[in-house]
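hey m, so remember when u said the tokens were messed up on ur end? i reran from scratch. heres the input so u can diff it against urs
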Amino acid sequence: MEWSSEGLIIGVRRHGESALIVEAMVPGRGRCLGLVRGGRSPKQAAFLQAGNSAQLTWRARLEDHLGTFTAEATHLRAAEILADRQKLYLVQLLADHLRLLPERDPHDELLRGVISLIDDEWYPLDLAAELARFEMFLLEELGFGLDLEACAVTGVHENLTHVSPKTGRAVCAEAAAPYTDRLFALPGFLVGAGEPTPQDIAAAFALTGYFLDRHVWSARQIRQPETRDWLVRHLTAA
């Protein structure tokens, strides 16, 4: 078995005395792992770092084996990432999010979103808003998407202001009025209405964080990434 494609490196870990196991997101193939022999050598370790892209060739006798990678750098970002705390935490959080996906399950739209979040120039609130949208899409790709098309109570499509924590469905202002203390606020920018404010950003991350914890983090007995709280505070303050 063999294939070759450019992938985004999202993690590395040591294996034995000189090798690395590299984890990468690959278009059309999803999250893939492979052993890089001699990966801890100065030449290879310099570019086998999270956030860099590389041309990867994977080989294995059988498809379900770990396999080996040979890698050649194509886009080096690690030095810039390490010099910028915001970008460093962003890359760490995005890598943690991508690890929630099943191995070898293609999610090309998520991969494109990650590369855009890393490479494009963003104002802080715009970056925060795009990250919140990314988490919404991540929930959808994991099979736990929220239903924000119409009010769960009345069926109307306008003036959707809240989300039910029980069903993950939107609720309009009129139906939500008696129960606002039990519902999540639905920021307009998540449904294409208006520009985000710091309050909207906080509400968006409270919403996505609740459902990620309910369906993924707690369900798998893993902790919420600490970088997420720092990024939310930092981006809304900026």
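this time it looks ok to me. The first helix runs from residue 42 to 45. if urs says something different then somethings off w ur setup not the seq
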